[in-house]
Amino acid sequence: MRSAAVVPIVTVDGPSGSGKGTVSRALAKRLGWHLLDSGALYRVTALAAQRAGVDLGNEAEVARVAASLDVQFSEGEQERVLLAGDDVTHELRTEQCGEAASKVAAMPAVRRALLDRQRAFAVPPGLVADGRDMGTGVFPDALLKVFLTASPEERARRRYKQLIEKGIDVNLHDLSREIAQRDERDANRPVAPLAPAADARIIDSTRMSPEEVTERILQWLREAGVMTG
Ligand code: C5P
């Protein structure tokens, strides 16, 4: 673990359904730090491109949409994402949007267009950044890098539960297949493939609750003197 830089950053990377969203949110709350849900930026980009009638296969056009995104994130109990003033929080969570996000996320020009926007989240008192390449690409000097995994069956089960709770109708069998395809694309793309950073700490959360994972990370931060109590 590195010594605390000006703005301490904890990165939490991993595949879909690994629990990184829940854990990152809990960590940010406990630490009183900001939260970056980088996946939401890729999802918003895909949605904005679709709304603008842009072909998702046209890298230059999608990158242009990414560079000029009018997006606002509200933190706190009522997390909301506004695209050009329109509340898209619910729409962003669908698996179709995740699938479209994964397609545009494989494009180098799109990733470049979103880089500064992601780094701008690193403001005091600290940042918890959740995604696929937070530790490997966006915040290589992060204080602590965590890579969260879980078995494919457990990840599909968690995503299913999450979507049903949000009122999004899905079928577990289709969802498992879609998640497997998305992970395959994310792990095998030439740019920023999903992989742990060399200095990441890996947690297999298959048999752990989100609270246990959060507590383990907080313990590492205590040991590093980043937090007390
Ligand atoms: O995490 P979430 O499921 O919202 O991410 C949606 C998609 O965005 C992922 O499947 C991945 O392709 C892409 N993504 C990425 N890099 C990140 C975060 C998300 O490529 N840092």
Overview of this protein structure:
By secondary structure, this protein is an alpha/beta fold. The chain has one domain (4-223): Rossmann fold (3-Layer(aba) Sandwich). Helices cover 49% and strands 15% of the residues. It has 10 helices and 8 strands. The strands form 2 sheets. The chain has a 5-stranded parallel sheet. Strands 3-4-5 form a 3-stranded antiparallel sheet, covered by helices on one side. A hairpin with a 2-residue loop joins strand 4 and strand 5. Helix 2 (38-51) packs across helix 3 (59-67) and helix 8 crosses helix 9 (172-188). The radius of gyration is 17 Å and the shape is globular. It binds cytidine-5'-monophosphate. Residues 16, 38-39, 42-43, 98, 101-102, 105, 131-134, 182, 186 line the site of cytidine-5'-monophosphate.
Query: What is the subunit organization of this protein?
Result: single chain
Radius of gyration: 17 Å
pLDDT average, as an integer? 93
Helical proportion?
40-55%
N- and C-termini, Cα separation: 19 Å
Distinct bound molecules? cytidine-5'-monophosphate
List the total number of helices: 10
- Please, what is the CATH homologous superfamily? P-loop containing nucleotide triphosphate hydrolases
Shape category: globular
CATH hierarchy class name: Alpha Beta
Describe the biggest sheet?
Answer: 5 strands, parallel
| Overall number of domains | 1
**Elements, N to C (H/E):** EHEHHEEEHHHEHEHHEH
Strand order of the largest sheet: 2-6-1-7-8
